[in-house]
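haha ok so turns out i had the wrong file open the whole time. this is the CORRECT one, sorry everyone. sequence first:
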Amino acid sequence: MRKTMSGATPADRITNYVADLVDWRGPIVARIRKLILEAAPDLAEQWKWNVPVWSGRGNVLAVGAFKDHVKLNFFQGAALSDPSGLFNAGLDAKGSRAIDIKQGEKLNERALRQLVRAAADLDIA
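then structure:
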């Protein structure tokens, strides 16, 4: 695994990022990370723009924790089918789509796994 300038691997930096989120966002980001790794183990964990990013041939998705929500940004989300209606942010963007999760909201884990897998497949297509 490639080390970053600070000496930590991207996976280490993501682990630290999650650990630093001591409120409700930490468990959500940890769960999302696990779902991503299950759905698309072929994606590489990276650290870009001070957030976790999963990449294949290009950037596939990023996860960021904000004050009142956690955002999953799918870089090519506009090209993905979303039959479960997970995308709820960035719907007017040309290429990307996002899912904003607020405190107390339940993840549709099955649909999220399918969306992540579809995004990974699109990246290698």
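The first strand starts at residue 44 and ends at 48.
again sry for the mixup
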